[in-house]
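Reply to dn_fold:

You asked what the input looked like. This is it:
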Amino acid sequence: MSDTTAQPANDHGHDPHLAHHFDTPQQQFTSGKIGMWAFLVTEILMFSGLFLLYAVYRANHYDMFVVGSAFLDTNLGALNTVVLLLSSFTMAWAVRTAQLGKRNATVVLLALTLLGAAGFMGIKYMEYSHKLHLGVGPGNFFDPSDEVILPEPEPSGIIEEEPTRELREVAQAAESNSDSDPAAIEEEPRTTLPQPHRAEPGISAEARYHSFAEYTHTTAHASTHGEHHVPQFRRERLMSARPFFSIYFGMTGLHGIHVLVGMGLITWLLIRAARGTFGPQYYTPVDFVGLYWHLVDLIWIFLFPLLYLIH
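and this is what came back:
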């Protein structure tokens, strides 16, 4: 009996990367690409449902988003956007170097992409920890601390901020009308008051001004100083924003999970690239993971303006 070498199970033993149920590497690559795009479409559909939830709540509870957005740091959100865009660039470059067989360049670029992903999660940890410290977490974690509860003013409370000309005119008109006709305040046109706080029956002009001053003071400082400044609200107004933080943590948390999955995949690619697995004849995993990472970047491009910029 002759000593012969056993043949592989398929007829393509010369190409270890070709699965037995494909005839050519190109057929395998095309089939995988179609499957990858199908998977990405399902991811888009999943996030589309969350975007629809966001739109419905924002349309029906605008004031809730005004309060919640005061706790978001636009600077950190913008920094995370830049980090993800740079990591997407290095990922695309890594795909190209893998196609050209540049092993060392592929390793470096994948490492930079992984570093960008880690930086994104580090910044997100800073944001999350600050909000949890203030007690404005999702669901049962929503328990605002005293730092964000604005104390009720004294009955003769002194207005610290200089009222605008429009507010002064409204207050003076209300006071003069109340001396001659107690019911005149109720007849005051409500459209003259700044939004989102309208006049309500039985609410004095001073109380209305306090409410609006609180709103403008909070949003102005939050947008200027970011999360280094702790916004303060009346308890009832802050409690009304509880669904906003559930939406925020739900959408950004799910995106964060995708980032962590991407980090695991990039680490896997990095190990294989260091072993010299990828080259002009085989770079499929790098290409497919690159598509996934670009989707993660694209989703954040939508999340950032919706949650951080649109007030």
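The chain has two domains: 25-147+238-309, 165-228.
Hope that clears it up.
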